[in-house]
Design a protein that fits this description.
Shape: globular
Number of strands: 4
Order of helices and strands: HHHHHHEHEEHHHHEHHH
Number of helices: 14
Largest sheet: 2 strands, antiparallel
Radius of gyration: 20 Å
Strand order of the largest sheet: 1-4
Length: about 325
């Protein structure tokens, strides 16, 4: 039977985009400074770190898991970036690769607990969250580490054809994840694992390896997001990233990812990040304190989950 085009179908398929357009229009009318190129570029740079973290979080959520450690891994990546650049004197590029590897190792630790020791993702990543944050404080002695401003700040200050490098990097990582999900065996198997893990396992696919890699990718991207954070402040602080996991989860859910697994879209997750960015930016422009912003984010998560439930019931 042919699918009938209806208002419900349109809403189910495009609600994320509609939310974004609505918020964008509200922002334009609410503040005359919102639509300035400088403000829009600043939003892109400010939310580059969350974009990287959300992409990694998405693949974990697609498997039916969750990664609560991303904020702490970001803090560890932030501190390690500053330490490697300042104390070891490494050049920028090798330092970034080292931070990626550190994040990968920490993420794989969570993956081993989940995939091979059958820990609940919540418990495994909660433990990793505590460990990573503790290591960050140990390395930094609880104090921010100043970095050479002419090295790491290049990530934040460099422009390509007038576009900040951080925005270009964010676009590239989203394109890579769209390709991985839609065009590779790995992406398709992740969706299958989230939909019916037992069926995938019985078909002979080594589910543990795929889940392990998903957590490894999440850790690597979170650590790299720490390097991005350091580039914007020229300081490696063990305090950053607190609550970032909730923002990343919110971006994925707003983008249509199911916390039950088997569903998620990298591009829509990017739209979810932008929706959070719009809310935060317009409230900052209107001088609204941070606490109401947290309330708004929580309400949006509830709204997004309700939309998902409605979509599932309608499809049934």
């Amino acid at each position: 039977m042919k699918n009938k085009i209806s208002a419900v179908n349109i809403w189910n398929n495009y609600n994320t985009y509609m939310m974004f357009i609505l918020l964008f229009v509200i922002c334009v009318f609410a503040s005359p400074n919102f639509f300035s190129p400088r403000n829009l570029m600043n939003i892109g740079r400010q939310y580059a770190a969350l974009t990287f973290v959300s992409m990694g979080m998405l693949f974990v959520i697609i498997t039916g898991g969750i990664d609560l450690s991303v904020g702490s891994i970001l803090a560890l990546g932030c501190v390690m970036t500053a330490t490697i650049l300042t104390d070891l004197g490494w050049p920028l590029i090798p330092s970034l690769f080292a931070v990626l590897i550190i994040g990968l190792i920490v993420g794989l630790f969570s993956g081993v607990l989940v995939a091979y020791f059958n820990f609940a993702p919540f418990i495994a990543t909660l433990a990793t969250m505590t460990i990573a944050r503790g290591i960050a404080f140990m390395i930094s002695n609880g104090a921010p580490i100043q970095t050479p401003a002419n090295t790491i700040s290049l990530l934040d200050s460099t422009r390509i054809f007038g576009i900040p490098l951080l925005i270009v990097m964010s676009a590239i990582i989203v394109i890579i994840f769209v390709f991985l999900q839609r065009k590779t065996v790995y992406g398709r198997i992740l969706i299958a694992i989230g939909s019916n893990e037992d069926a995938v396992r019985l078909s002979g696919i080594r589910v543990k390896r795929y889940k392990l890699l998903a957590y490894g990718i999440s850790g690597a991207l979170a650590a790299f997001a720490g390097a991005i954070t350091t580039s914007r402040s020229a300081v490696g602080s063990p305090l950053v990233g607190s609550g970032l996991e909730s923002d990343a989860i919110a971006a994925c859910v707003i983008g249509g990812a199911s916390l039950a697994g088997g569903m998620g879209n990298p591009f829509k997750t990017l739209i979810g990040v932008l929706i959070l960015a719009l809310i935060s930016n317009i409230m900052n422009l209107l001088a609204v304190p941070s606490y109401p912003q947290d309330v708004m984010k929580g309400l949006i998560i509830i709204f997004a989950v309700l939309i998902q439930s409605t979509n599932v019931k309608y499809k049934k």
